[in-house]
Amino acid sequence: MRSPGTLALVEEAMSAAWQELDRQLPGVRSAEEVHAVIVLGGVPGWIHLTVWPTEDNVAKIPACAVHELSHNVRYANVAWNPMTVTVGEQVIAEGLAEAFVRELHGDEAVGPWTKTLHGEELVRAEQIIADAVGLAGMQNLTPYVHGDETTLRMGGQPVGLPHGAGYAVGLAWVDRHLAVTGLTASESTVLPATEILRNAGIATQ
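The structure assignment produced for this chain is given below.
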């Protein structure tokens, strides 16, 4: 994607390929376009981005990369163990990453999943997640970070949370921590999750 015009070449090739399939297989169905952006930055030294190359998604790549850099730096300095990682750690990590994006690129660059919960719905989500902050094990993270819809698709047990609730709650908690301490998101990147949770008024025991 570095070379100018690469995206246009991909679009041209895909369009021609689809026209040929449609010509030879009239009425054939294609997979639904999900317009997805999938990014992973938990492995120090690597940021992995998988993007459906729409104009909107391509425009999101810089902010997504910044979000993942936050994870990358955090887990080069904070131990992450799939057996012992807690819901609290993961939710705070997502909140820190979104706050870091906002710090560098403004509120408009923050992921839409952080802005979906308001009022009583946010309070309810916070309570459900707060009750589980000490729950350990990577297998337990999805319901509390990604919500019921994704959990059900992955064959897990839902806990009553809307899509992406952990991101919205994580950012809300990080914002409280930032307000109390006067620290920036950058300065908070490698702080223990328990410290940030306490600053946000969330019990960790």
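Interim note for the steering committee: The mean pLDDT is 89. The radius of gyration is 19 Å.
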